[in-house]
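Recap slide: Cation transporter, sequence and predicted structure.
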Amino acid sequence: MGAGHGHGHAGARHRWRLAVAFGLVAGFFGVELAVGLATGSLALISDAGHMAADVVALGAALVATKIATRPDGTGRRTYGSYRAEVFASGLTVLIMLGVSVYVVVEAVRRIGDDVEVSSGPLLVVGAIGLVVNLVCLVLLRGGASESINVKGAYLEVMADAAGSVGVLAAGLLVHLTGDGWWDTVVAVAIGAFVAVRALVLGREVLAVLGQHAPHDVDLEAVVRDLEAVSGVAEVHDLHAWTLTSGMNVATAHLVLRVGADAQVVLAAAGAALREGHGIEHATLQVEALPAQECHAATW
């Protein structure tokens, strides 16, 4: 089996959804930023900053899905470039946190200022933004459960939909009370929401990069199923991790009973991992009793 051989890639299947969402969000970002700067609305500017994060995140997601499926011509990337989408999700996290910090800093700077904001632009732009984000959510929802890359884009758009609701709320409160400070209050609330969503996604990204066992794989059950394979006496040195969304991989040592056929055991063990645990790629090593192959390892 050659280095960097191909696998089905979840993110690539939904690339067209990312492309459409990217076009919609990029178009609306320009409108919201222009209106925000013209009216001095921090809620609009903060939401436009989040839309900018959407534009970068969706663009990075598009690039990552392309890179992830690109053949490796160097022979050095034995797992291909599938991790590109995980790095793109990490970039999304950083952008979202950056926007949150910016909003808080700007809100602090406004303390003591007499804030005047027109409610009309807030209501109009907030309504348009909500429609755009809802369309994008419908587009991306199908791939969010399959790809961490698409999930990152989906969470970005979800947070921005909440931002659009916040802009509408700010416009309504400013209109009813005549107090422009509601614009700042809502902006801070949007920033806090975005930060929380970023931390949730960031935790998932770090788990993949840290090669933690996949959250949907029960390692104890994996060991039980492998030990239940006819001819297997013991299982040890089991490792399982996620290469990228939809690609769980594992390695393990199987100690064979006397007289067991190694090829039959390997085929049955591979089937148990695929059918019972969704692990399509497994590297399994067989050992004869008594098992001494890996005793020299110190980690």
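The first helix runs from residue 10 to 13.
Confidence is low (pLDDT under 50) at residues 1-9.
(End of recap.)
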